Amino acid sequence: MSRATVLIADDHAVLLERLVSLLKERFEIVGTAMTGKLLIEGAARLRPDVVVTDISMPGLNGLQALGRVKKASPETKVIVLTIDADADLAAYAIHSGASGFITKVSASDELVTAIHEVLQGRVYVTRAVRPV
User: What is the pTM of this model?
Assistant: First the structure.
């Protein structure tokens, strides 16, 4: 059985490498991107099963890139990764087309589960999101 493909976007090289290390044993990491523009280009070219993207990136941020990623690769599931555990932000991301929303703090505990959930067609929102 083939492993699900994942494209990871974050503008911090150290965090990007940590995410790759966290996921590479369970998923096929098909690429990384450090800007929203590179994320969109990578999604269009690679058509990954899942994109994991930071919100804060130079140029286009992850939320701005989200719609373009979905347009370039409609079947790709997108998980938004952020430092902010805000319920309004999570709702906005999901409403904008994301399939998942997790915090960077909880990524080591939740990211693998979130990827499995979105691949099953479910929406995953971190337990760390604070109510409005």
Answer: 0.94
Token couple for 3: 């492993």
8, β-bridge pairs: 32, 52
Question: CA-to-CA distance for 123 and 46, rounded, in angstroms?
Answer: 23
Maximum distance among all Cα pairs of the chain, rounded to whole angstroms: 42
Question: Is residue 80 within a helix (H) or strand (E), and if so which, with residue range?
Answer: strand 77-82
Q: For residue 86, which amino acid is it?
A: D
Q: Are 80 and 68 in contact (CB under 8 A)?
A: no
Distance, in Å, from the CA atom of 25 to the CA atom of 103, rounded to the nearest integer, reads: 21
Residues 6 or more apart from 87 whose CB is under 8 A from it?
A: 129, 130, 131, 132
Q: Would the pLDDT of 130 be above 70?
A: no
Task: Specify the 3-state DSSP secondary structure of 91.
Answer: helix
Task: Say how far apart CA 125 and CA 24 lie, in whole Å.
Answer: 22
- How, if at all, do strands 28-33 and 5-9 pair? parallel
pLDDT in tens, 15-52: 999 999 999 999 999 999 999 999 999 999 999 999 99
